[in-house]
Task: structure prediction
Amino acid sequence: MSSLPVVVIAGRPNVGKSSLLNRIVGRRIAVVEEHPGVTRDRKSVQAEWLGTPFELVDTGGWMTSGDELDDKVSAQAERALTGADVILFVVDASVGATDQDAAAARIAKRSGRPVLLVANKVDDASHENAIWELLKLGLGDPHPVSALHGRGTGDLLDELVALLPEAAPTPLGDEEDDGTTRVAIVGRPNVGKSTLFNRMIGEERSIIHDMPGTTRDSIDTLVMTDDGPLRFIDTAGMRRRARTERGAEQHSVIRALDSLDRADIALLVVDATVGASHQDQRLAERISAAGCPCVVLLNKWDLIPADDRESILTGIGEKLAFLGTAPVLKISAASGRGVHKILPAIFEASDAYHHRIPTGALNRAIRDLQARHPAPSARIRYAVQGAIDPPTFTLFVSGRLPQTYLRYVERSIREAFELGPTPIKIRVRIG
Ligand code: GDP
Ligand code: GDP
Result:
């Protein structure tokens, strides 16, 4: 089985799907292999663009000849789309959006996969005005191409490749790669991690399942919550309430670093009576480098006199500055106060971390932010979200943009799409 990213070409008959596939394969992409698809109608070829290999699948004729889709055809169409990493949804721009296109577009949208709307048969510039009518399909901005003559296909492929998922950086064990949000609880010894963990799973009153972790002699704990399962990484020490010995500090920090590499979310536990120490700052730095969102838990809040609270919070904000967007929760693991806020914060951060923004909406936001503050030297032509975990955006720009402007772009995207608790990455391509 191929593990390449899968690009599915979809659309009603005669819009030019197979012409597009041949264009992509024939002109600029080396065909490595061709093999029969799952059904007689499906054609699957291995392809490559600018060094990025992918599998290209033509869904063939998955529509009936009438305007309505019958259940069987629509089920078949949906199946074809479930395996897609990106869908190229092809429409015949010389005809415009028909009811059949609209029905097919709804299926494509329902699949939840990223879709690039391809306006085909735009053989020359005089046909370009017709494409804006296709916005009503709700699949974002149309990309004009001519599969027959090749016009626009290079731009389309650039954008396509930017949308493909990146190769997984660390291979995870099969049993772990099940989509369950992975949470690492990190912090210095004695900050209250064990107390907190036992309190959390105690309050969940839920099914708890210890399972081997992926590193040697480690144990993970799967907790079913009302909002879905969470996998807490490397919990052996916390479950056994292992007491810390002298010299154990370094060891536990190293383990924490291991678990961060596998985490979707980090809970950084800080002892409020001590404040953010040098060690906490190093952990924060590593969390930020791991690129996962973080929730800061300021524990032992019960021990802080009311008069000191303000200054402690200010100190934390300054010392953990790189976790700029991370929420800070004041809790007492010992009494349970504030602990109920942790799960919602985890799920909120997880949603933001996995968030995928439709290309059309993203580009409207880019247009708006440039209208508010144009960059001094260059223009952002368009943007795509190339990856999630964390959300990663590629900007296609006409020239160099200053760092301050990129920070403005990042801030604007974060605000427009409420990505608050997750880090995001911005990449720039000039040309
Ligand atoms: P499919 O059924 O969606 O796979 O469509 P085909 O690739 O078989 O194309 C249907 C018809 O549209 C054929 O006659 C193609 O030659 C024609 N066609 C495909 N792409 C273009 C294009 O970019 N411009 C023009 N003018 N005709 C095209
Ligand atoms: P760990 O080493 O990070 O797992 O920390 P522990 O959970 O073993 O806690 C260290 C000590 O702090 C224990 O004596 C706990 O009883 C105490 N502790 C933990 N959480 C709190 C809290 O919220 N308030 C107070 N007052 N003590 C706490």
Summary: The first strand starts at residue 6 and ends at 10. The two ends are 36 Å apart (CA to CA).
